[in-house]
């Protein structure tokens, strides 16, 4: 298991958490060479202001809280924010929504927006019988409504990853259906192998990581960016 995985898992367990928060999850993905948006974590008005000046607009603002799993369901993701004023307004809106639900402790993730593209999900679970398994599908409504996903047992090769993508009913969308530019399947294959390949994040860490959900990865002609990440830890007693 990589030193990065060990450190992230230990920090989360020390804090009593059964999962990595989004900033920790993205840091882990980045350490495996997976592109994530430039971001800052902020806990105060001052930190919000310095995050905004350190990053390039447009911004995305999200809450970081162990009580908020699907952030959008709580109105806790705001995209396309052009400047500090808009970030502060978005923050006040999210705070009001969370206060109304009695959700207290939280920090903020401010990040740059990925260029628009096709949303793809990559996930992983550790099956009691088969061990680590990797999954991919087209993101958003496609995954939830169409159940258009493919699975493999880890470790996978680049050829396996390419096959997983071509098996999807929505595969023509990757080739640029309806006059859209084709997206980089190579960038997606890279991510699949970095998670589920021979030395992949999940393949190597299945004794510590129970579940991975990268939803979505935004893929364009030029590359792929993981804009959300969730890691659920194994329920082991020792850290
Ligand atoms: P949730 O917890 O609701 O899944 P996400 O972090 O996935 O929250 O954000 C919800 C949606 O907002 C994503 O599916 C994506 O469409 C968009 N989004 C989030 N972060 C970014 C980003 N950095 N750049 C572009 N779009 C983003
Ligand atoms: Mg998401």
Write a structural description.
The protein is α+β, with helices and mostly antiparallel strands and 239 residues long. Helix content is 36%, strand content 27%. It has nine helices and eleven strands. The chain has helices at residues 3-14, 22-31, 45-54, 84-100, 141-146, 158-167, 171-174, 185-196, 201-205; strands at 19-20, 39-42, 59-64, 77-81, 107-112, 118-127, 131-138, 149-153, 209-219, 224-226, 230-233. The strands form two sheets. Strands 1, 6, 7, 8, 9, 10 and 11 form a seven-stranded antiparallel beta sheet that branches. A four-stranded antiparallel beta sheet has the order 2-5-3-4, with helices on one face. The longest helix has 17 residues, at 84-100. The chain starts with a helix and ends in a 6-residue tail after the last strand. The model has no long low-confidence stretch (mean pLDDT 94). Magnesium ion is lined by residues 215, 228.
Quick structural overview:
By secondary structure, this protein is of the alpha+beta class.
Q: Main attributes?
A:
globular, binds adenosine-5'-diphosphate, 9 helices, 11 strands, 239 residues, alpha+beta, single chain, four-stranded antiparallel sheet
């Amino acid at each position: 298991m990589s030193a990065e995985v060990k450190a992230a898992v230990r920090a989360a367990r020390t804090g009593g958490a059964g999962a990595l928060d989004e900033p920790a999850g993205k840091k882990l993905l980045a350490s495996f060479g997976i592109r994530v948006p430039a971001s800052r974590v902020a806990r105060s008005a001052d930190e919000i202001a310095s995050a905004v000046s350190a990053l390039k607009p447009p911004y995305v603002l999200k809450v970081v809280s162990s009580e908020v799993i699907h952030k959008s369901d709580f109105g806790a993701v705001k995209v396309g924010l052009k400047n500090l004023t808009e970030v502060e307004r978005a923050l006040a809106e999210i705070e009001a929504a969370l206060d109304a639900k009695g959700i207290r402790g939280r920090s903020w993730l401010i990040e740059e927006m990925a260029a628009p593209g096709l949303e793809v999900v990559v996930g992983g679970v550790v099956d009691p019988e088969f061990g680590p398994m990797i999954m991919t599908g087209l993101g958003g409504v496609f995954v939830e409504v169409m159940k258009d996903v493919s699975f493999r047992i880890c470790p996978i090769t680049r050829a396996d990853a390419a096959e997983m993508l071509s098996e999807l009913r929505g595969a023509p969308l990757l080739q640029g259906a309806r006059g859209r530019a084709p997206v980089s399947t190579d960038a997606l294959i890279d991510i699949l192998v970095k998670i589920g390949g021979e030395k992949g994040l999940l393949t190597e860490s299945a004794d510590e990581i129970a579940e991975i959900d990268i939803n979505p990865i935004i893929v364009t002609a030029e590359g792929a960016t993981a804009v959300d990440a969730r890691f659920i830890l194994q329920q082991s007693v020792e850290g």
